[in-house]
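Narrative of activities, Objective 1.

The group set out to show that a structural description can be obtained from nothing but a protein's sequence at a throughput compatible with the screening campaign. Below is one input-output pair from the validation batch, recorded exactly as produced.
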Amino acid sequence: MDYTAWSMAYWEEASRVQERMAQVRQEGLPPSPQEEALQRRRLSILYEMYLDCVHTAKDLGRRAQRQEAV
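Output recorded for this entry:
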């Protein structure tokens, strides 16, 4: 298994999620409280996705290092 390639793919996905978060933030505050709550929810979900990608990328990177050491 190529853990390094998998790790890089997760880092790339984390970067894409960060870019999307920046886009949502640049949209500015929505006109209504309901839409503002939806925007906060979207940002929260995107941030969770980002953290999952980073965690998985780090884990796969560690596995790749262990595999190379053997």
